[in-house]
Amino acid sequence: MSARTRILTVAVGVTVLVLTATALATAPIGQTLNLLGRGSTGRLHAKHDGIVLKSRGPVDVAVATVTFAANGGSSGWHHHPGVVLVVVQSGEVTFYDKKCRPEVHKAGETFVEAENAPGLAKNHGTVDAVVQATFIVPSSAPPAPPTPLRIDDAQPKRCNVT
Q1: Contact by Cβ (8 Å): 90, 129
Q2: How far apart are CA 82 and CA 149, in angstroms?
Q3: Which fold is adopted by the domain 27-152?
Q4: What is the per-residue pLDDT across 40-74, written as a single tens digit (0 to 9) for each?
């Protein structure tokens, strides 16, 4: 097989994988995200009162209000390139991990999304649920586009939650 044929075969294979992953991704349903702000910083290194935040490289920090519609608003299966600190402002959100295990979070509670694995947040309640999310993600240097705040994932096998 010539080098050109190998390169073409690899390119076709990568394209098929990307298209398949995109086709299997689960989009949000009844979810709105209002990005309040996003900024870049160098390496993050803060230590105060027993709390330590440290990054290996520059990061972006973004803050958003996310609303999940009553009776089934869902984030879709996804993960984040960094860490997300989530505060439930009102309502109730159930977070499902990659093994489809539910964890219910009520108003005033906090949870963290920090895995390179699929997760899904869903509102099973009869009123809208609102969360405040703080994203800490790796920075990308200009002129590259900003690092995405979420990455869509396929629904895990043996999990019928969407």
Answers
A1: yes
A2: 8
A3: Jelly Rolls (2.60.120)
A4: 999 999 999 999 999 999 999 999 999 999 999 99
